[in-house]
Amino acid sequence: MTVPFQKYHGTGNDFLIIHADEHVPDRGELAERECDRTDGVGADGILFLALEETFDPPRVVMTLVQPDGETAPMCGNGARCAAEWAMDRTGTDSVMIDTQAGTLRADRDGEDVVVEMTDLTFDPDAIPVDADEPVLREEIEGLEVSVVNTGVPHAVSFVDDVDDVALEEVAPPVRHADVFPKGTNVCVASPDGSGGFRQRTYERGVEGETESCGTGAVAIAVTARRLGLTDADPVDVSPPGGDLRVSFNDRGRPTLAGPVEHEFDGEVAVEPPVEP
Fold first, then answer.
1. All structural domains of the chain
2. Per the record, which residues fall in region Disordered (predicted)?
């Protein structure tokens, strides 16, 4: 048996979208199999979405299952893809997104989809990280990082040039460090010369570098402002897959803006093939 999917990406951060009503016996197994870029469709995760059109604006319930088969509470680019999917189906320019990290509002702004992110925190208990006070510019497993939760944990390191960092070597020890009981994403950022930053991110659950990470872009922007590295608003953040923009609205919450593209549609088997 197969189920239909739509493939979307936000600045290269790509996802299979499957309607939550579709019968998938084991979502984790499906994500492990189909997110594989060699033997599956290839993606940074599967978004299971349920659309509730009776609300104004419409609501979409988002569950992200990552390539390791685990569920992540939040994903910035995933939320933007979910918003585009829902707006395509409802003919609206605004939707509400229910995630495990909270409810977000998303709006279309020209070519971009803008999502208001969850409340961020540097509080160690809320991240979580084993520390008595906020971790700002402290060395963990050989990398100087600042730690923040923007829906998911991030360890952010500011470097001279992100291209000079062997991310696949330096990130895993930090991602798995004992001080992070639930693990962490690892971001490196370098100034772009105009108040913004270039970004590379090693993502927990993907267990590798991704073309873009929305919660990581927000983590870089809010940490840079906390450390006095920029006073720009918006803060431009450029991962390998494109350009994102982090702003701060009148409620003091960050917003994440950037393009979203619908790549193609297809079908996947809901159960693994039987071995001969």
1. 2-117+259-269 (3.10.310.10), 138-251 (3.10.310.10)
2. 233-259
